[in-house]
Every structure is written in structure tokens, then in C-alpha cells.
Amino acid sequence: MVENLQTPVLSEPPVELGLGLDKGEIARRFRATGRVHIPGILTEAAAARTYHCLAKELPWRLVLLGDSGPRNLAVADSAQLPVPEREQLELGVLHRAQRGFQYVYNSFPVFECHRDGILMDRYVMRVYEFLNSPQFIGFVREVTGIATIDYADAQATLYRPGHFLTRHDDAAEGKCRQVAYVLNFTPEWRAEWGGLLAFIGPDGHVSEAWTPAMNALNLFRVPALHAVTEVASFAGAGRYSITGWLRQAPAAA
Prior knowledge:
Blueprint: H1 23-33, E1 35-39, H2 44-56, E2 61-66, E3 69-74, H3 75-79, H4 83-99, E4 103-108, H5 110-116, H6 123-131, H7 134-144, E5 151-152, E6 155-159, E7 164-168, E8 177-185, E9 197-200, E10 206-210, E11 214-221, E12 226-228, E13 239-247
Antiparallel strand pairs: 1-11, 2-3, 2-4, 4-6, 4-7, 5-13, 6-13, 7-12, 8-11, 8-13, 9-10, 9-12
Helix pairs in contact: 1-7
């Protein structure tokens, strides 16, 4: 079974910041809490084109933690696993999620594909290039007050019913992660469908949660304990985003 992918459209709008962003207010909110939700981050044309690419043009893979570490399967291949193997895989995912770190969702490795020159005609590559442009890097330095942000990595994600990401704080030695980001491209979503970006306080309660949205940027300082809640079986759409970390370049040897 091969995914029914569409070819890219010929007319591509430039990827640009949206008009009317109040950088002073955005900076005030980020510096008060270490996180901020920014609606209207891109122009409407760029956001709509990005959503079309995510929904129609990418070869998604299923990513999760297996018994021996991370697993990465083509979506079609995962659906065709023998029933006993698929059941064992699903039970293992649920068992690890009960008490430890676990994730399961669809992914497309934007950073790695761009580095290797793969599928460069996809519009997500233009978004990735914008995330590493002087305009965007300057914007996030200004609103976060973190001058050591040098570049962004990226993956595209699609959460379908049953997908989730358990609590973690994004800290990783040697990765130089300064700020985590989530670019939202979900045109229609209801909070009860799950897929919420939930920040977990020291008392174990959810201190704040953000619903998937269209054309919005979430920024939060690393480390920050958070999770993506499970997408409900009755969710009426996919949860699309481009996500990653704004990082400091490693020091030269």
C-alpha cells in the first residue's frame, strides 16, 4: 500500500511573518511565564499552503519507543504488520506509557531531509528555511530575550486518534536547546478531542494547556515539563504541526 500523495503546487507564496504581531506584548508574556502562544504567526497564504503540504504531500512514518529503543515505520507498513506483532507492539507502547516516557505519532524528518537534499520541492522545506532566516531568528531572539539562539531544527508531526507524547522536559545534554517551538497548522479542533500541549506544574497538576490551532506559534523555555495528551478516538481531524527546538550552535573545537 502506497500513500496517495499529491504533487506540490506550482505557485508558492513566500513564508513570512504575519502582520500586526505585537512583539512587546509577546515578549512580556514569555518573560513572565517562560512560554507564549502567538496566533497569526505567518501570513494566511503561507499558513494555508503549509497545511496543504502537511495534509497531502508528505510520506508520514509512525514513530514510537519499542522494546529495544526508537522505532520508525512507514505508515502503510505498520498497518500491515501481522496481527500478533501489531498487538504486541501496541501493548508495549501502552505498558511503557503507564509509568515512563513514551510517544507514538506520525512524523516527517524535515531537518534531516533538508540536510540530505531529499524532497526539497515540498513546501515544508521553505518553512524550515524561513525558521532559520535572519528575520525569524531575530524575531525569536527579541521576544524571548535569548541572544544565544542560532538555528532551528524541525520535524513535521501528525497526531491521529490514539497518538500521544508523555511527560518530559526536553532537556538533553549537548543538544544546546534554548527554546522549544510548535508551529500549529490544524484548521479545526475541539479541546475535548485531546492533543493538548499541557504544561505540568510542580504539584503534578496541569498548570496550562493549549489547544491545537491554525497558524499559531507556541514557544516555551527548555527545560519545561509538558506532554501532548492522547488524541481521542472520536477526534474529527488530524493534529498537524512543525515542531522542534531553537538551539545554540555548538562551540568550535
